[in-house]
Give the backbone structure.
Amino acid sequence: MQQKHPDFFDDLAEGQNPDYLWIGCADSRVPASEVVGLTAGDMFVHRNVANIVLHTDLNCQSVLQYAVQVLKVKHVIVCGHYGCGGVTSAYEGTDFGLIDNWLQPIQDVIEKNRDKIEGIDNRKDKINRLCEINVKAQVKNVCRSPFVRKAWESGQNLSVHGWIYSLEDGLLNDLDLCISSNDEAASISEV
């Protein structure tokens, strides 16, 4: 890196000013900066199992608050991935112990959306559709955050996006979900 950009680390040490907050799955196959082709300092990142955004998760909410209020990111990206083990475990009701408590919100999403998935015959396609629905639910949770709502009320330029990553081909798929105001957030269909 120093050969290509001699001042890179000096500039990086001065502080961060990312335009993006990435909320993604902790899966080791989905490295946030590499997936979008950015370098260190370009994206603030929060990862957890199945990219869940809970209002009771102080870690996630602290990251969201810091990114929105202090760093003034312009984009919050919720990115899931097809074949997510957390979503699969929630769907199949696999018993792993403590993680089962973490996955409960996904089981709730599954119950609310059972009609959208039961008509899908192929197990892989069913799980992948659930992964997309989970991203949509987490985008909705981000939009309900008081930090995001306050940013929009004050006129801050902020958009929340829903994306999903394919491990099979390395492509990011935009789920056509970009929310930039409280009014738009209110129009997200129930998930």
Summary: The chain has one domain: 8-186. The first strand starts at residue 20 and ends at 25.
